[in-house]
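ugh ok fine here u go
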Amino acid sequence: MNLFSLLGAIEVGFLFGIAALGVYLSFRVLNFPDITVDGSFTLGGAVAATLIVAGVDPVTATVAAALAGAAAGVVTAALAVYLRILHLFAGILTMIALYSINLRIMGAPNLSLLGRITLFSFTDHLPWPSYQVMPVLFLILAVLFKLLVDRLLVSNLGLALRATGANPRMVAAQGGDTRYLTLFGMAVSNGLVGLAGALWTQDQGNADVTMGVGLVVVGLAAVILGEGLTGGRGIARGTLGCLLGSLVYRLVVAMALDSDVLGLKSQDLNLVTAVLVVVAMVVAERRGRLTLFRSGAR
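structure:
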């Protein structure tokens, strides 16, 4: 793997680490298996691209994209908590609906940002090439959002969110409204995913209606790999694991696809992803059993 490919994998790893933080909030904190992220990632990119093409400044467009992703999360949560639809099915319904909504927003299957000013246009005027600047920039952004999520989850509101995912009956018995907490948590989760979609669109220079396909698997792979790397205990370790897991996942994928020995090509990306997720889940399960065995032996 050459330097360009390595830095590209690091850049994408940290960018998708922001989306992995959103997946972590829904799957691990709220215990809500959310498939909406496949659609809300694309929604964020579609909103950002459409607004930028319309002449809106990129900062406003990015904020609007995050809010659109949050709205998608609220819809999924509302289907689950108010209409009593199975969590997984609620996410699937929202994801399917978002496909049509994203097409409506963009007016076409894809939208180019060629020649438009984006959040990252300033890198063209720096003395260093953009492929060296972007990994550092996304590292800073990923760490920033990791710290913000950490701050949220250790606050009183965050404790209520964690309790809602762990034992909603206990929260209700203490006078907490698990419905509003679920709505808020899902809004933050999909807001982060929508933000990642907006950043990805501006980084790549285009939005595509299929760019979010498989994101939930990628996000879960990052979360599971990260838990294996950090131990997964505690909020700080859990969110750090999201970033490290996303980075490791992208590096492994890049090395696998770049290897002439394995004979893999770009069209094998989904196959590599599936294999990595299976390996990560098996390792996590074996590690959990070993931990239980050691604690029992004591």
